[in-house]
Amino acid sequence: MNTDTKTRASSFGPALFSALVLSLGAAPAAAATWEILGGTFFMPTVSINGPVVLGPGDPGLLIEGEYTGFSGFSPEYDNDDPLLDAFGFFEITVDIYTNSTGVDGELHAAPTLDLETGIADMSSWYVYWNETEFNQGSDSAQITDNHDGTLTISWESEIHTNPFAEKTGVWTLDVQAVPLPASAWLMGSALLGLLGVARRKVEAGR
Known about the structure:
Elements: H1 3-26, E1 33-42, E2 52-54, E3 61-63, E4 87-89, E5 92-98, E6 112-114, E7 119-121, E8 125-129, E9 132-135, E10 141-145, E11 150-158, E12 168-177, H2 182-204
Antiparallel strand pairs: 1-2, 1-3, 1-12, 4-5, 5-8, 6-7, 7-10, 8-9, 10-11, 11-12
Helix pairs in contact: 1-2
């Protein structure tokens, strides 16, 4: 091996190693799937006992770019993948889902979180209560970093459907990034191992 080849090979190894480590380390922070830990719902002037504490559904995942939890009306609302546990509001069950459109007749983007701007698009957030659908989303929800690995998404949304027309729903949603699957980490470890072997061979050939 000539000197130029040795130089290129030896410099290529550390660069690739650093890039791989950085990409693996940064992946969870840029995750597109978020585990829902819980949240709250409150309707000023209407809620009697303060905010309702919301529990996560099963599996309770907010997946960026995907609509979740709506399976249609047949003839009633059907939820096969709940974002949050159903809860009672005036002793009537409330179900939550995201969908591209609904009672408002508008098209909504699937949920996205922009961690650089601190804004989340939650405009596809729908509520089903007492055989009535309400859009309760916002395309300018605020993202708060809790500095413990979790985020809180918060927004307000005016209701345009009776019986709560012109009332405002206030929502919070606590989420954390879903780690990369174990298989992805194993693949990364294997690549790092192969890179180490290649570097040793290069050094041995000097």
